Amino acid sequence: MTRLTALISLILVSLTGCSTEVVVSSDEDDAAADGTPEPTPNDDPTQFACEAPVPEAAFEATIDTSAWTAEAPDDPEFDPSTLTIESTCTVSAVGSSNQGRDFDLALDCENDQPLSVRLRGLPQGLVVDLEAAQQVRVDYRWNSDAHHLSEAEWLLIQADDRVLLGVLDGNGVGGMGDEIVPFGLAVDDSICASPCDGGDSICSDGHRLAVALADAPEADGRYVLDGNMGTLADHRFVVARAEGFSCINCESTFRILIVAEP
Questions:
Q1: DSSP structure class, residue 53
Q2: pLDDT tens digits, residue range 41-70?
Q3: Is 255 helix (H, G, I), strand (E, B) or coil?
Q4: Residue 187: how many CB atoms within 10 A of its CB?
Q5: Which of 251, 252, 223 is nearest to 239 (CA)?
Q6: DSSP β-bridge partners for residue 24
Q7: 89-103, 146-160, 170-184: lowest mean pLDDT where?
Q8: What 8-state DSSP symbol labels residue 39?
C-alpha cells in the first residue's frame, strides 16, 4: 500500500494565489506474507482521528505595538507594510483574571518602547510562565494586507533559550519559522478529509489541518488538530484555527498559541 504524507510547510509560507510549498514523501510498504497489505497509520482511527473542535481552544490574542513604527512598502499597491521587533525586554506587569482564562502582559523594551500582550479565553489550567522583572527576548513580525497576502502577525518570547510564549495569527502566515521559531513546524493535511472535490478548483470550504513537528518520526503520530490542544516538544499548543482552502487566491489560516510546560 502506498503511504502518502503531504506536509505543507508552515515555515516561510508566502502565498501567491493558492500555491504553497509542498514536500511529499512516498514509500511502498511490503505486503504481509498472506498478501494482505500492511495497514498505514491513517487506518487506525485511535491514532489519527479527525477530532471535533473543542470550545476551550478558541482563544483570542491582542498584541499592542503602537509605540513602534512600521516600515512602509516600496509599492503600496502590491507590497505590505511590515514591522519587525527584535529586542531585549523586561516584564513590567503580568496578571491573570477570569479564573486564569484571561492573561495580560506588559513589557518595557529597548529605547523605552513598550509592548503589551492580551490573551482572552485561555484553556482552564494553562499557565504562562512569566513574572514581573523578568528579562526576556522578544521577536515579533507583522505584515499588513497586500496583493494576494492577508494581514498576519507572530510573536515569540524567550528566556534562557526557552520559548515561554508564542502567538501566531493570520492568513498565509510567513516568517514564524526559520526566522524566530526554534521548532521545526509543519502542517499535515492528511488527518481530516478535504471537503472539496479534488477537481473543484474554486471550492472555498475549509480543510481542517493539523500542526506537527517536522522532524518527529512519522510513527510518532503526534499532532495538534485544528480547534484542539496538545503537547509537542514539551510545549503546550493551542490551535484555535488551522484551515486550508482550495479556492482561487485563497490562503491557509492559522491561530496558534505556544506555551512552555511548567
A1: P
A2: 334 433 568 999 999 999 999 999 999 998
A3: strand
A4: 23
A5: 223
A6: 6
A7: 170-184
A8: P
Handedness of CA 146, 147, 152, 158 (dihedral sign): negative
Q: Is pLDDT at 10 greater than 80 in this prediction?
A: no
- The number of C-alpha atoms within 13 Å of 155 and in the hemisphere containing its C-beta is 22
- Please, what's the b/e burial string for 60-99 (b: 16 or more CB within 10 A of its CB; e: otherwise)? ebebebeebeeeeeeeeeeebeebebebebebbebebeee
Residues 2-32: b if buried by 16+ CB within 10 A, e if exposed: ebebebbbbbebebeebebeeeeeeeeeeee
C-alpha grid cell, residue 250: 485563497
- The answer to whether 222 and 215 are in contact (CB under 8 A) is no
- Centroid of chain to Cα 115: 21
- Residue 46: all three cell numbers together: 485511535
Measured in whole angstroms, the distance separating CA 245 from the mean position of its chain's CA atoms is 16
> Residue 259 pairs with which residues in a beta bridge?
165, 236
Here the cell at position 87 is 529586542
Give tens-digit pLDDT for 165-198. Answer: 999 887 644 445 445 566 777 788 888 988 776 6
Asked whether residue 38 carries a pLDDT value surpassing 60, the answer given is no
256 touches 237 (CB < 8 A)? yes
How far the first Cα of the chain sits from its last, in Å, is 42
CA 243 to CA 172: how far, in whole Å? 10
State the Cα–Cα distance between residues 243 and 206, nearest whole angstrom. 5
